[in-house]
Write a structure and sequence with these properties.
13 helices; single chain; 12% strand; seven-stranded mixed sheet; 3 domains; 443 residues; 38% helix; alpha+beta
């Protein structure tokens, strides 16, 4: 008994000591002296950039590292704010990309900015709901029952075909079912089946085109998928389009009724849109064999519509230029012109991603970005377009793209590090208009 008491007492003392040490460590971090203006501040920025890029790469490769990445972003942002580093004139002039970038990343860590936009989630949904609502004809009880089971998709298609017979030629719905190559639904990561319906818009009447996508359960697994996603596209006269997003969840009730409500309104969180959707709408690359031969022309038809939208704009909600250059942008070093990737691309006779994926085109592949999506496109044979590469060559190309982007070598920094440190500012080789993208973006 006495031994147990002494052991418990010692444990309490040890726990108290650990708590004191932790508190002292936190206090020391919080009270760490701010870097002085001049060389010390520059050294702090360089160290912060290295830490940020390392953490970003770790999170890109492994979702388990995401929490550590978020802490790195938050700690960096807090130091910038506490020490007023962005207000140092010489420092802000020397690193004009770094401070807005950290601010944007830190905003996405806030609970009320899960979408990753500069506006709060509440504000975004309030201001864009007029564009992202699901059309009423897709909310009828009969259609919701048909679309919620794999076995009844034939009936759902018959339902939509009947609707098309009552619609004008320019209002015809485009729809098909398929299996995604890379991403599960937000509510069920193991579910890859989809049913896409493209509802034509009318810019003259301020009606957006809507890509409404229902998650579909696997055969024999009814009601295992709830997600419905809407991407609304409002065409502009400047060869671009304003793009808006919203996820909905279905609720299945015991009596058989099905209701749909916004995922955010249900209190079930949301995901950062621009991680995957920097191009706005994503082209559809179905799993081989998952689309019937009769419906394959519809896949090409919706991808043709995507290519006709022009540059995706997100209004004041997010400025894509603040995320910097993307994969394969050749901006890592003004002198070397990103030699490592250029050598790899030349070896495989393929082109850089940035020819199409830039802020004046389909949106750059820059951080934050989804590794599953990008790896699937590159190693799965869809990107770069028209590149005839073996599986082994594609893996080499993918690894080189990632190494070049996240590299922190001091003498030849990666694309992200070089941009954040202002070493690529004079090397912008982006096409400056949608027309310049030309046939490269046709698939």
């Amino acid at each position: 008994m006495n031994c147990t008491c002494r052991l418990s007492h010692n444990r309490r003392l040890f726990a108290a000591a650990v708590t004191i040490v932790i508190c002292m460590a936190v206090t020391n971090i919080t009270a760490a002296p701010c870097p002085r203006e001049g060389l010390q501040s520059q050294e702090w920025v360089e160290q912060a950039v290295n830490s940020l890029v390392r953490a970003a790469r770790a999170a890109y490769v492994n979702e388990a590292a995401e929490d550590k990445y978020k802490r790195t972003v938050s700690e960096t942002a807090r130091t910038i704010g506490r020490c007023e580093l962005a207000q140092q004139t010489d420092l802000s002039r020397r690193y004009p990309e770094f401070f807005p970038y950290v601010k944007l990343l830190s905003i996405a860590n806030q609970d009320d900015h899960e979408l990753g936009f500069e506006a709060s989630d509440k504000q975004y949904f309030a201001e864009t709901s007029q564009y992202t609502s699901i059309p009423d004809f897709l909310l009828t009880p009969a259609f919701l029952r048909l679309i919620s089971r794999f076995e009844s998709l034939v009936g759902a298609k018959s339902f939509l075909n009947d609707l098309n017979r009552t619609r004008a030629l320019n209002e015809q719905l485009l729809f098909f079912s398929y299996q995604s190559r890379h991403l599960g639904t937000p509510d069920n990561p193991e579910s890859y089946r989809r049913f896409l319906i493209v509802v034509p818009g009318d810019a003259a009447r301020s009606l957006p085109e809507k890509w409404v996508q229902f998650g579909v359960p696997d055969p024999g697994r009814p009601r295992s998928v709830r997600n419905v996603s809407v991407v609304a596209v409002m065409l502009n006269s400047d060869e671009g389009a304003n793009v808006y997003f919203k996820d909905y969840f279905r609720t299945y009730r015991r009596g058989g009724s099905i209701s749909i409500k916004g995922r955010w309104e249900l209190g079930e969180g949301d995901d950062p849109c621009v991680t995957c959707h920097k191009s706005g709408v994503l082209p559809i690359f179905p799993e081989a064999g998952s689309v019937s031969r009769e419906e394959m022309p519809l896949v090409e038809a919706v991808n043709q519509r995507f290519r006709g939208y022009g540059v995706a704009r997100f209004g004041r909600y997010v400025d894509l230029t603040k995320f910097g250059p993307g994969l394969g942008s050749s901006l890592a070093q003004p002198d070397s012109r990103n030699v490592s990737f250029a050598t790899t691309a030349n070896r495989f006779k393929t082109q850089s991603c940035v020819v199409c994926h830039n802020t004046n085109g389909l949106g750059p592949f820059n951080w934050p970005m989804d590794s599953t999506l990008i790896k699937s496109f590159v190693t799965g044979g869809k990107m770069p377009l028209n590149a005839k590469l073996t599986i082994a060559e594609r893996r080499v190309l993918y690894n080189q793209l990632i190494n070049d982007y996240f590299g922190i070598n001091a003498t030849q920094p990666g694309i992200l590090r070089a941009w954040l440190l202002g070493k690529s500012r004079s090397a912008d080789s982006y096409p400056n208009s949608w027309e310049q993208l030309g046939a490269c973006c046709e698939n």
